[in-house]
Write a structure and sequence with these properties.
Elements: H1 2-13, H2 20-36, H3 38-49, H4 53-79, E1 82-84, E2 94-101, E3 104-108, H5 116-128, E4 131-135, H6 141-154, E5 160-162, H7 167-175, E6 180-184, H8 187-198, E7 204-207, E8 213-216, H9 222-234, E9 246-250, H10 254-269, H11 285-294, E10 299-302, E11 306-307, E12 312-313, E13 316-319, E14 336-342, H12 345-353, E15 360-364, H13 368-377, E16 382-385, E17 399-400, E18 406-407, E19 409-410, H14 413-418, E20 420-427, H15 444-452
Parallel strand pairs: 3-4, 3-6, 4-5, 6-7, 8-9, 8-15, 9-14, 13-14, 15-16
Antiparallel strand pairs: 1-2, 2-20, 7-18, 10-13, 11-12, 17-19
Helix pairs in contact: 2-4, 2-5, 3-4, 3-6, 4-5, 9-10
Length: 453
């Protein structure tokens, strides 16, 4: 590993990764690589998570195409030094901000979107002019092997390399000195990453998770709310960091919404989801057993069936769970939706505030004043009004958490910003000089007082 990092550092210091033309060439090369291997990518995702072609293309491959296209379109503009205004005390000077690559970067990817969440941060690293070491998740071995094979055959190892392995390999990577670490995964592992990075004061971007609420108020369009909540919850069998983790619904529309949630489940996954070949599976037996245990935390309003041999769990709606139950102590990360009721929106505000800041929040109401109240009253990474998940598909919206749900953000320009340092430069004139700045000036203090008051 040390040899690999030394090679990447040496390549970076040649300046080869920094020109605009090189960055664009590498982005186009990666895009072509994905296009040429779509079938293999779809096959790997099917084997690892039983992802349907529709889900794999839209949430993994297609997403990357959109992100690459967006970066290519605007990269030249992002790279340009930015001129800033100078105060009167700096007359004659120019203030400039240069966008400088960090250097050798490490990207540690998760298993839930093992292709998209591996390469999406890499796009920011390439756009920023860095070299990159990618560590895919060992829990999705087919996708990990495919990434390693494709990247090794098509990119110089000293520029872009894939290192496979288990958590011990991740630990060894974290023991090395990188210039930036980008991690996507759980909060407990995120704490380990940050602790390791602190030994070298390495900057980190942590994309974590948490319990993201969906809220349905009494005036919401219930048909649309039900459809969009089930879509957001059950995409990838709920194994999505920004999936609605639990639901608060106004007591006056609870029964109606519950019925519509069931209708939406049947419309999307049929009467027998366990037999639906288009429905994603749980990643492994450990996570499957954890989720099955959650099903007993409350009353099953709908679903609850599961098959361990296929690692598949029905979309499940729970009622009568409490915040003391295990299902509400941890991020669910599966197709189980606990439902709570509220009488006033302030009850929801109090409940959400009493827990860690969520990565996402979704509020369904036609009242824009109520929307604004929730946006201002509750801290969360990002979210949507009258929808779920869709905020991350707009490349102009930075995506990231706050507090325990993450540090830093990316997507679009935010990805470029995440992998570059803003280097501030003052270009001073030599045509004249201000005597008052020097301690020998007799009138210096009086001039300075006038300037700053």
């Amino acid at each position: 590993m040390q040899e690999l990092i030394d090679k990447q550092k040496a390549l970076y210091h040649t300046g080869q990764t920094k020109p605009y033309e090189f960055r664009i060439a590498m982005l186009n090369k990666l895009k072509k690589l994905i296009k040429d291997n779509e079938t293999s990518i779809l096959d790997a995702l099917k084997k690892d998570l039983n992802k349907s072609e529709y889900e794999a293309y839209t949430a993994e491959i297609g997403y990357l195409y959109a992100e690459i296209n967006h970066i290519i379109k605007d990269l030249k503009h992002w790279m340009k030094p930015t001129k800033v205004a100078a105060p009167l005390t700096h007359k004659g000077s120019k203030g400039m901000i240069y966008k400088e690559a960090y250097g050798v970067t490490l990207v540690i990817a998760p298993w839930n979107y093992p292709f998209q969440l591996a390469l999406s941060p890499v796009l920011g690293a390439i756009a920023g002019g860095n070299t990159v070491v990618l560590k895919p998740s060992e829990l999705t071995p087919n996708t990990s092997h495919l990434l390693a094979d494709l990247i090794t055959k098509n990119f110089d190892r000293a520029y872009f390399s894939v290192v496979e392995g288990d958590k011990d390999v991740s630990q060894k990577l974290l023991d090395q000195r990188f210039d930036l670490i980008f991690f996507t995964g759980s909060v407990p592992v995120g704490k380990i990453v940050m602790e390791k990075a602190s030994q070298h004061l390495t900057p980190v971007v942590l994309e974590l998770g948490g319990k993201s609420p969906a809220i349905v108020d009494e005036d919401a369009d219930l048909d649309l709310a039900a459809k969009r909540i089930i879509w957001g919850k059950c995409l990838n069998a709920g194994q999505t960091c920004i999936a609605p983790d639990y639901l608060y619904v106004h007591e006056s529309v609870k029964d109606a919404l519950l019925s519509k949630l069931v209708v939406s489940i049947k419309e999307m996954y049929g009467d027998q989801p366990l037999e639906n070949e288009e429905y994603s599976h749980i990643v492994n037996e450990r996570h499957f057993d954890r989720l099955v245990d959650y099903i007993h935390n409350g009353n099953v309003f709908h679903g609850g069936e599961h098959k361990r041999e296929n690692l598949v769990i029905e979309p499940t709606i729970l009622t009568d769970a409490t915040w003391d139950d295990r299902v509400m102590q941890d991020e669910i990360f599966g197709p189980i939706l606990p439902v709570f009721t509220f009488h006033t929106i302030e009850e929801v505000v109090e409940a959400v505030r009493s827990n860690e800041k969520p990565l996402a929040l979704y509020y369904f109401t036609e009242d824009e004043d109520r929307q604004q109240h929730i946006i201002e009253a509750l801290p969360f990474g990002g979210g949507a009004m009258n929808d779920t998940l869709m905020h991350i598909t707009n490349p102009n919206l930075p995506f990231g958490g706050v507090g325990q749900s993450g540090v830093g953000s990316y997507h679009g320009k935010a990805s470029f910003d995440a992998f570059t340092h803003e280097k501030s430069i003052l270009k001073q004139t030599t045509k004249f000089d201000f005597a008052f700045r020097y301690p020998s000036s007799k009138t210096g203090l009086s001039v300075i007082k006038k300037l700053f008051r």
